[in-house]
Here is the input.
Amino acid sequence: SVIVKLGRFLPARRAAVPQMIIFGEDASEISSTIRWTVRAKYDSNGKFIIICAHLEQECDELKIFQTLQSLYMFNAVVLKTSNKTKESLAYSYDFLSEGKCKNSIPYKVNLTTDCFNDNCFKNLYPERLSNFRKCPLIMSTIEQPPFMYLHNLTSKPTGIDGDIMRLVADMLNATLHLKPPYDGADSGHFANNNWTGSLGDIYNNHSHASVCSAPITSGKYGNFQISFTYYSMDIVWATRLPAQQAPWQKLLHPLNIYIRIILLLMFICIIFMN
Here is the structure.
């Protein structure tokens, strides 16, 4: 277990804490603590159990989920006790809901020890982003032939990176939106305590993802979640040998038909001049 103190010192990197329990007496205090965890560079994609307990006033779970939604924190469960009925209540929320691309309305979670095989607790954190419900997936990118070709920033890029972008959007049932970097026209670099270019769009919450071909450095690895190639294979091309050609044909082979005609005319002119 890890005990977190709400200090002012914000380190450049944090050790991964996969699950965090937050205690508080009201929604304002808990919301402030949640924002602090993001500023302190704790993993906002981890699993959060939030316990709100106050003896005199009701805890406003709606305000807590509004904070979670604004910080893109999906895996959270809020536990509270109703002051009226003294009943223990549990809430969670879906970041994306039907017809609503940004949702902060919580729903009650049935937590009971009578669940078969403890399924109530095992399914407490389902996959939240497997279906975007046609909501926009904003990707910051730049044109990098031959990996990425942009066609007036349409949703149909080509090249290997463009194919991956369209495949991801299709698998997530999302609407692909492309945008150029807000600051600069490159993949990005760290300057003046901030990131520029396409990576800066993620760092400053202008896009959901960045797709660009750039060398991985310690700074990029420490500040961003980077996808890797998991599978590779060797490909052997088998083809027939080309037909044998005369030496003069081999010399002219790299040249197109227009250059061949020009060379022929020049050769004829030289003959007549002599």
User: Anything to note?
Assistant: Strands lie at 19-24, 47-52, 76-81, 88-92, 107-108, 136-141, 175-179, 190-191, 194-195, 209-211. The chain has two domains: 19-122, 136-223. The domain at 19-122 is CATH 3.40.50 (Rossmann fold). The chain has eight helices and ten strands.
